[in-house]
From TrEMBL:
It comes from Bacterioplanoides pacificum. S-adenosyl-L-methionine binds at residues 73, 104, 123-128. It holds the Pfam family SPOUT_MTase. Keywords: Cytoplasm, Methyltransferase, rRNA processing, S-adenosyl-L-methionine, Transferase. The keyword Ubl conjugation does not apply. It is an enzyme of class 2 (transferase). Signal peptide: none annotated. This is Ribosomal RNA large subunit methyltransferase H. Homodimer. SUPFAM superfamilies: alpha/beta knot. It is found in: Cytoplasm. The gene is rlmH. Its main location: cytoplasm. NCBIfam families: PRK00103.1-4, tRNA_RlmH_YbeA. HAMAP family: 23SrRNA_methyltr_H.
């Protein structure tokens, strides 16, 4: 199984790249994490946020493969504990396909992209900066994997 983090946004600061890579490299080959960066929609004083969101939606839909189990990060999604994430990770591995974890742009995702998700996950009631979400996702996926392996990292 491959975990694919489809994230709107490019040109992240070095600390984001380093933090993400620190946890992504710890995951084994059979549960690898791949980051797919997607260009954000154009935002400007003469462009609507809806148009930018639609551009991001098209990029996300192109990046999702037909066999992917889609999980959208959504403020209106269900909050999961780390243990619940580990349970979901175990379920995803049993399904045998890859998982696409979607991180939308600054205005969220369009309804048609959210409709593609088999699961909607809310990381927090807090508003988190998108760069930090990448690091947080990589760490939590590694932590969930470590729980499934009985590894002491989670303790």
């Amino acid at each position: 199984m491959k975990l694919r983090l489809l994230a709107v946004g490019t040109k992240m600061p070095a600390w984001v790249e380093q933090g993400y890579q620190e946890y992504a490299k710890r995951l084994p080959h059979d549960c690898s994490l791949e980051l797919v960066e997607l260009n954000p929609g154009h935002r400007g004083k003469n462009t609507s946020k809806e148009k930018a969101m639609q551009q991001e939606a098209e990029a996300l839909k192109k990046a999702i493969r037909p066999q992917d189990h889609v999980v959208a990060l959504d403020v209106k999604g269900k909050p999961w504990s780390t243990e619940q994430l580990a349970g979901n990770l175990a379920d995803w591995r049993m399904q045998g396909g890859d998982v696409a974890l979607l991180i939308g742009g600054p205005d969220g995702m369009t309804a048609d992209v959210l409709a593609l998700a088999k699961q909607r996950w809310s990381l927090s009631n807090l508003t988190l900066p998108h760069p930090l979400v990448r690091v947080l996702m990589a760490e939590q996926l590694y932590r969930a994997w470590s729980i499934l392996q009985g590894h002491p990292y989670h303790k």
